[in-house]
Amino acid sequence: MQLFSLLHRDENPKQESIVRKAILKFKWTLLIAPAGENLFVTTDNPGVAIDESTGLYYNTRFEDFFIFYFPLSSKYCLSIRGSEIDDKFLKKRNKKIINTKLITSSEVYRINDIMIQKINQRIISCDKYYLQKINEKN
Hints:
The protein contains 5 helices and 8 strands, in the order H-H-E-E-E-E-E-E-H-E-H-E-H. By secondary structure, the protein is of the alpha+beta class. The strands form 2 sheets. Strands 4-3-5-6-1-7 form a 6-stranded mixed beta sheet. Strands 2-8 form a two-stranded antiparallel sheet. It is globular.
């Protein structure tokens, strides 16, 4: 991943600082969907943040208590939690540790439900049955 380009995308210095802090200061966790069960979806507006204090969803929110989800594939989703400091990165400053966590099918479903709250027009999935179920629900 090109951290430099991510850190210098925003022309607003305050917003750039907030994004930089989230990318560098907080722990990253690679969430892994269980084999043979629900898979992650993505949308035409990938990445969603939750304000943990209010429960509100945002396209991006890297302030206060947040969790940011960004699906990388049908099997993997990056999670950045604003309440978990990456002490190893702050000390070494040259390595970003990415923790991994196998999650349950119900956790995948919950993250997918959050993802579709910020959809523009399209949901992307390799599971036709799952897309049909989402369509029926919404």
